[in-house]
C-alpha cells in the first residue's frame, strides 16, 4: 500500500472520530490531496469499515495463491529447455514445466529477452 493511501485512511478514521460524514471526509481529502486522492467509492467503503469498528488501517491479508511462477528457478528451467530444443512451442514448454503458457511467454520475452519464439 502506498504511503499516500495509508495517510488518507488515517485521515478517514480521524474524520470519523471527529463526527464528520463520509461526504465531508471525501471533500476534505479531495482538497488536501489534490489529484492523488482516493476515489469517492473507496472513501465511503473505508468510512463504513471504520464506523463498523475496524481499527486496522492496513489491508487484511488476502487468501489465494501468491504469484510465484515467475522466479529465477523457472527462468533457468525455461532457458535450459529452450537450449535443449529450440523448436519447442511456448505451450509445450508450459506443459512440460507445469507453467501457464502466458507465464512461459513472459519469461522468454521479458526475463530472457528472446524475440523469435
Automatic annotation (TrEMBL):
Domain Mos1 transposase HTH span(s) in chain numbering: 11-53
Highest rank taxon of the organism: Eukaryota
Classification via Gene3D superfamilies: 1.10.10.1450
One family name in Pfam for this protein: HTH_48
InterPro entries xrefs: Mos1_HTH, Transposase-MT_Hybrid
Protein name: Protein GVQW3-like
Amino acid at each position: 500500500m502506498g504511503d499516500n493511501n495509508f495517510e488518507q485512511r488515517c485521515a478517514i478514521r480521524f474524520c470519523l472520530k471527529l463526527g464528520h460524514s463520509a461526504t465531508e471526509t471525501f471533500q476534505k481529502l479531495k482538497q488536501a490531496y489534490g489529484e492523488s486522492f482516493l476515489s469517492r467509492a473507496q472513501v465511503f467503503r473505508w468510512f463504513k469499515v471504520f464506523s463498523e469498528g475496524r481499527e486496522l488501517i492496513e489491508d487484511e491479508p488476502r487468501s489465494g495463491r501468491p504469484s510465484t511462477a515467475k522466479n529465477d528457478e523457472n527462468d533457468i528451467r525455461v532457458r535450459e529447455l529452450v537450449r535443449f530444443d529450440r523448436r519447442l512451442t511456448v505451450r509445450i514448454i508450459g506443459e512440460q514445466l507445469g507453467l501457464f503458457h502466458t507465464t512461459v511467454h513472459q519469461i522468454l520475452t521479458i526475463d530472457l529477452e528472446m524475440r523469435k519464439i
